[in-house]
Design brief:
With 466 residues, the protein is an all-alpha fold. It is built from 19 helices and no strands. The protein has one domain (9-465). It is 83% helix and 0% strand.
């Protein structure tokens, strides 16, 4: 475990973020391997089928992830304050509320999967594969929730190493199962989805054994299931605030995916490949942002407000350094990275993916500010501003489909290496850089004001005990 209320902020952030980053690398290594196996072994139509469900799958995962992350903010606050009894009661509540939410999500997806894919304008040629993939992933959300709960609780008390170790085991199994089910048993996209669910199940089981054996102070009892109005309201505000923020962003992505699906299989495949590389390159941002949530939460609980500004500054500097490296990597080796995913005969598809990346990565500096400060404000219990930023992103993605795509030629565009060739898809390419910039300026201004108005250290005894 790591107490983040004492010691050098930048050292704490690096040592805590590193296991999270390594875990993200393994997750993305799996995701990339999964994409490579699907793209190279099953072909671009299967790649497009999986890609056409990306926004929905991301929405499901991020509602759960946001819920657990938000709940873990209160767990970290209790831990920072040294209140282990209330921490266990918080864990009992987070299990109850997240289980109910997950059950509703699963029922909703399974009941309305066909109308959902139809509403997303999923091409007929990939509809059945997309439906199969989404159905299996949705049914496996129970396993996803269990692992996220366990990992979130461990990170809240400063343990980011064990979730990494378990994730490494899961990733290796996942890749192995992918090869067996997709390449050997020829199960298609269903095999890829089943491999993911099976590996997560093993991760959840191993993590539970670790919690029971090594972290008994986190184990809850029936008496911990106490639901008072005040504590439940605080927990629900943190959890559903974070889930709402994540889901608003992903609802916007679903709207955008609808516009992308209208371009056909080639553009979908190119966009899927580009987004896989995008996910890989923003991992350090996600790791530092996740660290800032725990760092700010623990120091808030301990009443050490003077450390918070220093930690946020150090986190943003780390992310700016990575943004610079990401720009260099994409502009020098972007084609090589995309070529690992897209079959060699589809050069135009690969060219479109590279074009997408080269227009996006220079704006990573704004993205890092947005992600870092959004997480810091969540850790400080300020959930409204990040939600407003997410609503702005949703509205902008609606504008992208309504105005930006038609502005550049509508859905008549095709794959290629120039703006003229891809036509309306260039509106999609420009969409996120514009909104990252606008949201970063807004949330940065509000974060500065919030940090200036934080209590001084000498005021904290009264603030914490009220």
């Amino acid at each position: 475990m790591k107490d983040m209320t004492n010691g050098s902020p930048i050292k704490l952030i690096i040592t805590f973020a590193l296991p999270i980053l390594l875990g993200s690398i393994f997750q993305q290594a799996y995701s990339l391997t999964d994409t490579i196996i699907i793209g190279q072994h099953l072909g671009k139509n299967s790649l497009a089928a999986v890609g056409s469900t990306t926004a929905v799958v991301s929405l499901m995962f991020n509602i759960i992830n946001g819920l657990v992350t938000g709940f873990a903010i209160i767990v970290a606050k209790n831990f920072g304050a040294g209140d282990h009894a209330e921490m266990r009661r918080t864990i009992a509540r987070m299990i109850t509320f997240s289980a109910i939410t997950t059950a509703v999500i699963i029922a909703g997806i399974l009941c309305f999967i066909s109308p959902l894919l139809t509403a997303l304008d999923t091409p007929e040629g990939i509809f059945d594969e997309a439906k199969t993939y989404l159905m299996i992933v949705a049914a496996g959300l129970v396993v996803t929730l269990i692992y996220n709960l366990e990992a979130g609780i461990l990170r809240a008390v400063g343990d980011s190493v064990i979730p990494l170790v378990i994730l490494v085991i899961s990733t290796v199994l996942n890749i192995g199962l992918d090869v067996v089910l997709v390449c050997i048993f020829e199960m298609g996209v269903a095999g890829a989805a089943l491999a993911t669910v099976a590996a997560q199940l093993i991760s959840a089981a191993v993590c539970l054994v670790y919690l029971i054996k090594k972290r008994p102070f986190l184990m809850i009892k029936p008496s911990d299931f106490k639901f008072t109005a005040h504590t439940s309201a605080e927990l629900l505000s943190a959890g559903f605030g974070m889930a709402l923020m994540y889901s608003i962003v992903d609802i916007g992505s679903i709207v955008l995916q609808n516009g992308i699906n209208g371009f056909g299989e080639d553009i979908i495949a190119a966009h899927t490949a580009a987004r896989r590389i995008f996910s890989l390159t923003i991992m350090p941002f996600s790791a530092v942002s996740a660290t800032l949530v725990t760092y700010c939460s623990q120091n808030r609980g301990a009443g050490k407000y003077s450390r918070i500004s220093r930690g946020i500054r150090d986190g943003l500097l780390l992310m700016a350094g990575w943004a610079t490296l990401a720009v260099l990597v994409i502009y020098t080796a972007g084609g090589l990275l995309v070529g690992m995913i897209v079959p060699g005969e589809d050069a135009a598809v690969a060219g479109t993916a590279v074009l997408y990346l080269k227009w996006n990565v220079p704006f990573y500096y704004f993205l890092s500010v947005l992600l870092g400060l959004r997480s810091a404000l969540q850790g400080l219990g300020k959930s409204l501003v990040p939600i407003i930023a997410s609503i702005m992103e949703l509205l902008w993605k609606i504008c992208t489909v309504t105005f930006m795509i038609p502005l550049f030629g509508g859905q008549s565009g095709t794959v290629g290496t120039t703006i003229e060739e891809i036509g309306g898809y260039f509106g999609v390419v420009l969409s996120e850089p514009i909104i990252w910039t606008l949201c970063a300026v807004m949330i940065g201004t509000i974060a500065i004001i919030t940090l200036k108005n934080m209590p001084k250290d000498e005021e904290q005894t009264t603030e914490v005990t009220t």
